[in-house]
Amino acid sequence: MNILIVDDERDSLEEIGHYVDKYAGCRTYVLCSNALEAMAQAAKIPFDIALLDIEMPGIHGLELAKKLTNLYPWVGIAFITAYNHFAAEAFEVNAVDYILKPIREDRLCKALDKLKVQRLAQLHTEERPGGISIQMFDKFIVRIGDQLFKWTRQKSSELFAYLLQNKEYPVHKEKLCELLWPGLEPKKSLVNLQTAMYSVRKLLKADEGCRIRIEYVGSHYTLHMEEALTDVDKFEGLLQKAAASNDAAVLKQAVNLYAGDYLEKEGWLWAEPKKVALRKKYMFAIQRAKGK
To answer: Confidence band (pLDDT; 50, 70, 90) for 127?
Structure first.
């Protein structure tokens, strides 16, 4: 496990580092005294776990947690702080644990155990090494393995996201043209659609054995997925499982997947109804989790 440790107090930072160094299962740990340094390190190392102070100069620990999860949606967060009044906010950013200073080694190890179990479970359920992973909460992010897919055209990402939202449902090419290029002359918008579709197919082709395919029949495009691959699919699946089993742990897993409102950073109007519906599910899940 790669572990990031951030604390602006040098003594505390070194103490946490000392305990983590003794902890079994730690492959690499990095000590940072501020959030900017932490983000610079995170750009180079895909961290599995982040142990964060909250009250720090500059970027607040809660804001740093959001930035880290945007970069690596799988990262497990635990806060280590002298203040207990941030617990509710920590839960909102999907923290796995909240540790109060002064730090006890046994308490930190228990938190690391929880974070390690969560990460190993994620690795166990990943579709396959190097496969495609899709984030739709907060920001639309597509990765192939550890590499972020960079779109050559912005409309290509929107096209792919729309087809994902409407997977298994045929969408007429004219509807796509009107949605993505409103007001443009039909022939030009159709050329743009074909160009954007080429970029999407190029993405899917880059992932060998990809279980997502786009079918074109009778002027309709249909995106087929053999298994749920997006964070939204997993979120909704866990909510269904939690409702059926009344399992608080499964409910917490679902809440932890919610990294922000659906496609919030993209500003696509067609995503609004889905965003509102998912937000309601999330708020209901939080209320249920608090009631456990």
So the answer is: very low
